[in-house]
Design goal:
The protein is α/β, with parallel strands linked by helices. It is built from 3 helices and 8 strands. The strands form 2 sheets. Strands 1, 2, 3, 6, 7 and 8 form a 6-stranded mixed beta sheet that branches. Helix 1 crosses helix 3.
């Protein structure tokens, strides 16, 4: 599985002008399942994301994870958005190939599982809508953007 993690001051996802998910400070996570991925990869990816130390401590060092913020009185939300285009292969020319992306059925199953597990592990989880035409707005904090992959 692949994720693109962005530390944000705020983020939202809308469909046809209506906000379907939003957070204040926290992480916007674009998530992609690839062929051969399973719940095991989803679990590993979520564990890494929840413990990723990219928030500043009292000395200004990136030493806190989103879960540290969750219990400190600070806002530490997760906004999870499915995005199969993270599996793009651009090595063959100018038009990306998405053959490594999971099938829509597997992608939906793993995204739904990922969201369910995140909601069980973290107090504030918002989402987009799988396979919808979404508009994502964010204020990237830092900017901090981290690509992450858990191989099948």
């Amino acid at each position: 599985m692949i994720a693109l993690i962005q530390r944000v001051r705020r983020a939202s996802v809308s469909i046809d002008g209506a906000v379907v998910g939003q957070i204040g400070a926290g992480l916007l996570v674009l998530v992609c399942a690839e062929q051969g991925d399973s719940q095991s990869q989803a679990d590993k990816l979520l564990a890494k994301i929840l413990k990723l130390r990219i928030f500043s401590d009292d000395q200004g060092k990136m030493n806190r994870c989103v879960q540290d913020l969750d219990g400190s009185g600070q806002h530490g939300g997760l906004l999870l958005v499915s995005q199969f285009t993270l599996a793009a292969d651009t090595s063959g020319g100018n038009r990306p190939s998405f053959t490594q992306a999971a099938s829509p059925q597997l992608g939906r199953t793993l995204y739904d599982y990922f969201v369910q597990q995140a909601r069980g592990a973290h107090s504030e989880v918002a989402t987009g809508v799988f396979a919808a035409d979404m508009q994502v707005e964010l204020v990237n904090d830092g900017p901090v953007t981290i690509p992450m992959r858990v191989p099948a």
